[in-house]
Known about the structure:
Layout: H1 2-27, H2 30-47, H3 57-76, H4 86-91, H5 98-111, H6 115-125, H7 130-137, H8 141-164
Helix pairs in contact: 1-2, 1-3, 1-5, 1-6, 2-3, 3-7, 5-8, 6-8
Amino acid sequence: MADREDAFRKIYEANSKKIYHLCYGYTGDDDAANDLLQETFLKVWQNLHKFRNQALISTWIYRIAVNTCLTYLRSEKRQAKDELTPAIAENKPEVFSEKNEQVALLYKCISKLEESERIIITLVLDEVPYPEIAEVSGISEGNLRVKIYRIKQKLTELYNQHERL
């Protein structure tokens, strides 16, 4: 049992930040992303004995996370939050640097993408290798490169629209 816990701890440490970013890309909400992160790793813990080493463990975990996020979005019929509610905004301390604001705006723009585009660009931002992204998303590597190019164009447009406001 200790070996299993140790293996799980290592898996969590190696993958939790990327999975959090993926969940945040889907929800645009810190609390929801943390909940989905926990739910994902609960499923990883419960199914670790089923992992067959046919793919990288990170690919397997991404698939679990994507399915968890999609289930969450469908069952709750939630969309990524565009704006902070006034009550939350008032309680937020003004400690954002310009870089933090740009990152927040980037995630806000990502939240406006289609589900499949959100997962792909989040994985790209987390520097996941293209073959692994292709496997997670279920498209060929060639099609993936074209899709990434188009997603980046779309994100640039969304980002520039916000900059003009």
